[in-house]
Design a protein that fits this description.
The protein is built from 9 helices and 10 strands. With about 290 residues, it is an alpha/beta fold. Strands 1-4-5-6-7-8-9-10 form an 8-stranded mixed sheet. The chain has a two-stranded antiparallel sheet with strand order 2-3.
Length: about 290
Amino acid sequence: MIRYREPLYRPPSEAHSLIFQATWGCSHNRCAFCVSYQQKPFRVRPKEELFTEIEWAGREIPSVDRVFLADGDALVLSSNKLLAILEKLYAELTGLKRVTMYACPQNFKKKSVEELKGLREAGLTMLYVGLESGHDEVLRRIHKGVDSREIIELCRKPTEAGIDLSITCILGLGGPRLSQEHAVATAQVLDRITPKYASALTLMIEPREPSFEEVFGDPDWRPLDAAESLAECRVLIENMHADGITFRSNHASNYLALAGELQADKARLLEQIDTALAKPDSPFIRPEFLRRL
């Protein structure tokens, strides 16, 4: 059977995927907003344990068609290790059609385009990448470890290799002072990368050591309220001009669930936000007690 080391996270779109932990924790694990793996040191999962679980799944549930490889950035593994895992997955799970995982932009530094093409040919279909912001001051303050130029350059590698990207940004990271700049710069970076999917989450402050406020280091920073967050989301969408990106804000942290294709649905998405801003008591706006990480 499969034994998970908690906490365990996956993207909303992987709700029906079978999850295997190829690693534990996150190799970066320094982002100011993240509480996911603070109590879970990064480790590479022993191959024998992982392969035993894959073999069990092959016997018990061979019809599984989707697999998500956890934890925070399984792409940090060497290409040879990932190729062996992919080969094992597709050999044991005869109905398997796609394999996805989280990735940090830094993971692409140690992967050539040719290596990534090899992973794509072996069945790695999509990567979930945290952009968080396109604004360099915000990226520096949250300790992302890369700037916007590096993120754009690094994300070109999987795109060139034919691997789909689903990129997330976080509304509210810059607080009121940097809200406009954060949204515009993030839109510009997303345009440059042009991922298949772009998703917005909304910042939720959870207890951590050191605290988000301490790491961010701006005495004027405060969380955005619902109206400010929706206004920031509007600026983000309004300033995205690339065509064919599927945009979503369906994560439980968001105040308003949105879904559409840019540019075809851009006007509708903006109208939905405007309607919500005009009616703060709208039932479509998620109340605070229902928001979750």
